[in-house]
Each structure stands twice: as C-alpha cells, then as structure tokens.
Amino acid sequence: MAKPGGTGPVGPFPATVADDDEAHDEYDRMRRRLLWKMPSGLYVVGSTDGALRRNGMTLNWATQISFDPKWIGIGVEATALTHELIDASGVFSLCLIDRDDRAIVRKFTKPVDVDLEAQTLNGFPYVERATGAPILTQSVAYLDCEVRERVVAGNHTFFIGEVVDCAFLKDEDTEVLRMEDTRMSYGG
Ligand SMILES: Cc1cc2nc3c(=O)[nH]c(=O)nc-3n(C[C@H](O)[C@H](O)[C@H](O)COP(=O)(O)O)c2cc1C
C-alpha cells in the first residue's frame, strides 16, 4: 500500500521482518498505527511573513523542549505555506483550542482566506501580540514565539521557538483540544 503522498513502505526494517514487499508493507502499516497512538494536543499555528501575509494551520507536532529558556518546538512540513512564512519572519504563535471548538481545526488544513482589514482567518477573528503572528481570539490560550533554532528533520523542519509572550484568553479551566477528541490523524 502506498503511503499517502509517498512512495511505499519506508525503512529501515528490523531483522525480524522478512525481506519482501508484503512483510515490509505490513510492518510499515503497523508502525504507522503505533505512531498514531502517540498522544498529542491539537493546535492552530499562526504565521506571518513579517509583512502582509498571514496563515493559520492545524498542527499536532508541538511540545515544550526546555525550561530555561522557555522553548517549544513545532514540526512543520517543508511544503506548507506556514513553513515559508515562519522561515521568512522567524516567528509563530501556537494557539490552544477549546475542546468545544474542535470543528475549527478542520478549517485550517489548507492555506486560509485572510482578511487583513477585518483581521480574520477563514472568518475567525485574530489578534496580533508581541510577534505579529496571528492568534485566534477564540483560543483558550496562546504562546507567541521567536524562532531560535531550525532543525531540518526529514520532510519537516522542527522550528524551536522561545516564548516571548503568552496569555490565557478564556478561563484557565477550559479543557483544551487533543488529537483523541477528533477522528483525525497525522503522521504515522
Ligand atoms: C489533525 C491534523 C494534524 C496536523 N498536524 C500537522 C503538523 O503537526 N505539522 C504539519 O506540518 N502539518 C500538520 N497537518 C497538516 C497541515 O494542517 C496541512 O498540511 C496544511 O495544509 C498545511 O498548511 P499550510 O500550507 O496552510 O501552511 C495536520 C493536519 C491535520 C488534519
């Protein structure tokens, strides 16, 4: 079975897996199911080129990676518009989404319609804080980040950002969205 957008099973294959296409395929599919099992949050990343372009993108590959300094990392596909914008500006925002707003993430899986005048992304109002990356006003909270490191990671770039501003926009007790709240998956 071909990988979505790919070329078939991806190695390496351990010695316990027979060296034929069928066994490789079966192992490849099992490994994807296992990778999909890894728990994760589900976010909207806000990006800008530092001038007039803006975007919002659904992302689940995000994690804190350092206490001091306060650094978080996000994995962004090299072909995504978001990648181009973060590369250009060196900033991004990570928006934590209300569990009740799970429908939002479906709206941010391709480049969005931006209205700079009305300050909306696909009709959702946004604000700009420290970095100028858009932050959905409907977010529970946001982390506004300046990129400190860029690590090329296969077909993604791991952008490491320092948190330069953050705040809750809703009650702190609001439950935030996780991948398991949806039927969506990414990676694998
Ligand atoms: C549930 C879900 C999770 C996703 N997680 C990521 C992610 O962690 N990193 C990424 O680069 N793309 C992720 N995507 C894909 C992007 O949302 C999608 O490729 C988007 O079209 C690329 O955005 P852009 O071209 O508008 O920047 C995810 C998509 C879905 C549906």
**Main sheet summary:** 7 strands, antiparallel
- Bound ligands, named by name, code or SMILES: flavin mononucleotide
Number of helices: 3
- Counting helices, strands and paired strands, the structural category is alpha+beta
Helix content: 10-25%
Shape: globular
Notes on the protein architecture:
Helices cover 16% and strands 36% of the residues. The protein has a single domain, classed as Electron Transport, Fmn-binding Protein, Chain A (Pnp Oxidase, Chain A, Roll), CATH 2.30.110.10. The chain has a seven-stranded antiparallel β-sheet, with helices on one face. It is an alpha+beta fold and 188 residues long. The radius of gyration is 18 Å and the shape is globular. A hairpin with a 2-residue loop joins strand 7 (120-121) and strand 8 (124-128). Flavin mononucleotide (FMN) is lined by residues 55, 57-61, 75-77, 80-82, 109-111, 156, 184, 186. Flavin mononucleotide binds next to strand 2, strand 4 and helix 2.
Q: Which helices and strands, and how do they pair?
A:
Elements: H1 21-37, E1 43-48, E2 54-59, E3 62-66, E4 71-77, H2 81-89, E5 91-96, H3 103-106, E6 114-115, E7 120-121, E8 124-128, E9 134-136, E10 141-153, E11 156-168
Antiparallel strand pairs: 1-2, 1-5, 3-4, 4-11, 5-10, 6-7, 7-8, 8-9, 10-11
Task: Name some characteristics of this structure.
Pnp Oxidase, Chain A, single chain, 188 residues, four-stranded antiparallel sheet, 16% helix, 11 strands, 36% strand, binds flavin mononucleotide, 3 helices, alpha+beta, seven-stranded antiparallel sheet
